[in-house]
Amino acid sequence: MSPVTACLLALLTVGFLVVKQDALVLEEVEADALVVQEAERGVSETITQLTQEMEACADNEDMDCILAYFADDVRTMREGAAGVDIGKAETRKHMKWIEQDLDITKDVLEITPSTDESIVVEQLIMTMKFPNGTYAHNWKGLFVWKKVNNDYKIYIDIFNDN
């Protein structure tokens, strides 16, 4: 075999090895992406479940039940309020609607976890109607859920008129 042919065969062999290595790297990246998607789906399902449990608390007009889903140092912001209220006692002041006879509907628009899943943002619309069908509230807002002791609690609660 001539030196030129040997050199060409060596280059082809190296080229095939590089392509094979690139394919392996691509497979690893795709596998990692699937793991991330599965994790995000798991977090989204967890937040969806927690939101449904909170809705059951609201249906039962149980303020303490709902507040159990909030972090002790929750930050609550409402349209027209003087500023940011901190803590469950302050948040309770903004939740008197729970004790009213209202038909409540929550529509979750998006659930977005952080890369490390320690923070999750949930965007939603919440409508509340009196039994006669007139609107009491039509809000848009978000909850920022924070992982606390392997569980998620609402750390930021922001709603305003839609």
TrEMBL record:
Keywords of this entry: Signal
Signal found in the keyword field: yes
Gene3D superfamilies in the record: 3.10.450.50
Signal peptide range in chain numbering: 1-23
UniProt keyword Signal present: yes
UniProt cross-references to InterPro entries, sorted A to Z: NTF2-like_dom_sf
Protein's name in the database: DUF4440 domain-containing protein
Source species of the chain: Patiria miniata (Bat star)
